[in-house]
Amino acid sequence: MANMVRRHTTSARLWRAGLYTLLIVAALVYLLPLVVMLLTSLKPLDDIRAGGLLSLPSTISFEAWSKAWGAACTGMRCNGMSGYFLNSIAIVVPAVAISSFVGALNGYVLTKWRFRGANLCFALLLFGCFVPFQVVLMPMARTLGWLGLASSTSGLVLVHVVYGIAFTTLFFRNYYVSIPDEMIAAAKLDGAGFWRIFWRILLPVSGPIITVTVIWQFTQIWNDFLFGVSFAGFDSQPVTVALNNMVNTSTGVKEYNVDMAAAMIAALPTLVVYVLAGKYFVRGLTAGSVKG
Amino acid sequence: MPSNVSAPASRERRHRRSLAGHIERVLPRLVVAPSLAVALFFVYGYMLWTFLLSMTNSRMLPQYDFVGFEQYARLFANERWHVAATNLVVFGGLFIVSCLVIGLLLAILLDQRIRQEGALRTVYLYPMALSLIVTGVVWRWLLNPGLGIQAMVRGWGFEDFTFNWLVDSDMAIYTLVIAAVWQASGFVMALFLAGLRSIDDSLFQAAALDGASLPRIYTRIVLPSLRPVVFSSVMILAHIAIKSFDLVMALTGGGPGYATDLPATFMYAHTFTRGQIGLGSASAIMMLCGVLAILVPYLYSELRGQRHG
To answer: Where would you find the membrane-spanning parts of this chain (chain B) (predicted)?
Structure first.
């Protein structure tokens, strides 16, 4: 249709100008919160009180960042976000690894070793993508208590693995469906068994889907708040819960710059992943949501 | 050397091979079995468990003397639940419609062979990578009347400018809509853009040859063929709306008062802080019903679509 428009040049030029203006204004609106967050985190408190959300800092100071990282109060404690940041890492790494691996195996079996009831099995697993987690909170709290995992990092890893499998299975299944069965049949004729086919034939071609799955799971688990606030103890709270506590701590002077720096700290890991691997992030979103 | 193999050895080997074959046959099932067991227990079992809890009089701790549907009666007589349910309809409706409109508009604009399209797309979509807690914290800062947008615009000389929705109990629910739309509309844009790209270019050219104007092409040809995308977007957005919890906690905390309570925050408050596990479980089951109410028609039409086409 661009060809069609190009015939009348002046109106076409106006139309293109309007188009770009609209798109750029929209982009600015989307960027505004991030810009304000960053600016505020770099301002001294006096600048903030003087008003002007978008005014540039009189002096750029990283004091708020270092306070948010190491000394700001979240509820009763004043150790900053660092400990909670590490908690999040301790939860995310095993949970992502285990759920992705299990999902890969499930996807492999459900496409290449189909047994009777495989479809039903997949459908049963898939419902885990939809269940509102409020339905599982109370029973999960009881179960974690019985298992001796209440308020622990391992408990949160378990929760994230359990409710992540539905998504990871979906991702790998949809990817492995497109790998020709003939490859598997040929390998079987050559005497390759279940594991050998998985390690030697499927995994080597799984690069893209592993990336998509790991990014999806990482984003989901890093950004989780509901499970963290429901099941974590003081020593295992993830960064999102700590951020919420910090912002809601009402004692003392409200330090907006520290709040914003803390928000940046909590947001940076997923933002960096998004900027570096946006393509895979989007693919995960659409795969996880459209089909899920 | 086959000729050298004695009879018992070969029998044993055959036996071993069949044992190996047997393991090989059940191995796939064995591999999936733990996941299935986990799903049966942690998803279906828990749904049943929560349903049972919703039939009891549990308060601080779960206990199991059954009172039938009494908690549901209490729930529907509960003023705060009414606020939460009404809020969900208002929030969900506005959120879905705004995301669809903005997402579609941005997608159509971006589909005009734009330079730097990739960069723009990245900008529209980045909020989706953020935690809703971060989104809530940022928007709470932007929307606070004292130092946020209101103060900024007043600082520009519009002394009477008022934008204090965050602290106005009639308007606070709309702040949730603003923040949620900011977060999710870029995602809807991505879905629509993918949909637009899958439309055959020859359709456009044929319509253009027939002398159809650009708006006409969009309303008559493009929009109808985007129906499946609209459908799945609505379904995803509705799902996000029903589950919305983080954003409320970070942006309004459910306040002022309980003016911005949603079912998810109602459930959390009653189950974990107010010692009303029975009532909280009943509200959780209602949320499940809400999800099923949008999921079942969706799956039905998806499956039917597959069968027909």
So the answer is: 26-52, 88-110, 122-142, 171-196, 217-242, 277-300
Q: CA separation (Å) from A281 to A89, A188, A213, A218, B239?
A: 19, 35, 9, 10, 20
Instruction: Please report the sign of the dihedral spanned by the C-alpha atoms of residue A62, residue A65, residue A69, residue A72.
Output: positive
| Contact between chains at A134 and B268 (C-beta distance less than 8 A) | yes
> What's the token pair of residue B147?
């130092």
CB pair distance less than 8 Å for A132 and B42? no
ipTM reported for the complex, 2 dp = 0.89
Q: Is the pLDDT of residue B1 over 50?
A: no
Please check whether residues B38 and B88 belong to one and the same domain: no
CB-based contact A225 B187, cutoff 8 Å: no
**Facing A30 at nearest CB: one of B109, B155, B186:** B186
Nearest CA in chain B to A144: B42
What is the C-alpha radius of gyration for chain B, rounded to an integer number of angstroms?
28
pLDDT, averaged across chain A? 87
Minimal CA separation from B182 to chain A, in Å: 7
Q: What is the pLDDT of residue B105?
A: 92
Q: What is the pLDDT of residues A119-152, one digit of tens each?
A: 888 889 988 888 999 999 999 999 999 999 888 9
Q: Which residue matches tokens 């063929």?
A: B225
Specify whether B39 is located in the same domain as B95. no
The model's pTM is 0.88
Total tally of structural domains belonging to chain A: 2
| Separation CA B180–CA B209 (nearest Å) | 41
Residues B157 and B199 in one domain: yes
pLDDT of A292: 35
Chain B residue with the nearest C-alpha to that of A194:
B24
User: Which H or E element spans position A163?
Assistant: helix A153-176
Handedness of CA B214, B219, B224, B227 (dihedral sign): positive
Average pLDDT over residues B166-194: 90
Domain of A25 in residue numbering reads as 2-61
Comparing A45-49, A238-242, B68-72, which segment has the lowest mean pLDDT? A45-49
Say if B241 falls within a structural domain: yes
Contacts with B272 (C-beta within 8 Å, 6 or more apart), sequence order = A137, A230, B280
Same domain, A95 and A127: yes
* Cα A72–chain centre separation: 25
Whether residues A153 and A248 fall in one domain: yes
| Cα atoms in the Cβ-side hemisphere of radius 13 Å centred on B161 | 14
